[in-house]
Amino acid sequence: MVSSSSATVYGEPERIPCVEDFKLGAKNPYERTKVFKRQFNLIGCAAFDLGTGRGTSVLETVANFEKASGKRKGDASIIYASTEKAEKELGWKAKYGIEEMCRDQWKWASNNPHGYHSQP
Questions:
Q1: What is the distance between the alpha carbons of residues 37 and 34, in angstroms, rounded to a whole number?
Q2: CA torsion angle 40 42 45 46 (round to 10)
Q3: Rounded to whole angstroms, how far apart are CA atoms 4 and 31?
């Protein structure tokens, strides 16, 4: 599954849904990164907006992941393990934080849309 708010490249369009020939109008750095990546189209290629044809909020996406995962009301909301033992005994400590982890996972998933072993 790819969940992306790429329609933000259109800024605040006059009508919804957005279509590929709308003027680009990104207003913040996040939106501008999407415009920048979109400009890498190869000559002779066209842009296509793919999706369900309706907007989905982040909250709706989270709620659906909670439903799919079977998370129930009352499950621990915050739990994490200490890495002290691994650091002391193995000399291991994470080099990157959640931002870099998400970035790298996104990059891998984008470069491997069919997973590890599946073919297109």
A1: 5
A2: 10
A3: 11
Q: Taking Cα atoms as reference points, which of 2, 5, 9 lies closest to residue 37?
A: 9
Residue with more model confidence, 80 or 91 = 91
Contacts (Cβ under 8 Å, ≥6 apart) of 87: 93
36-46 pLDDT, tens digit each: 675 555 566 67
* Domains of the chain by residue range: 1-78, 80-113
Cβ-defined contacts of 27-36 (< 8 Å, 24+):
34/6, 34/8, 34/9, 35/9
Q: Is 10 a catalytic residue?
A: no
Catalytic site residue from 10, 30, 96, 116? 30
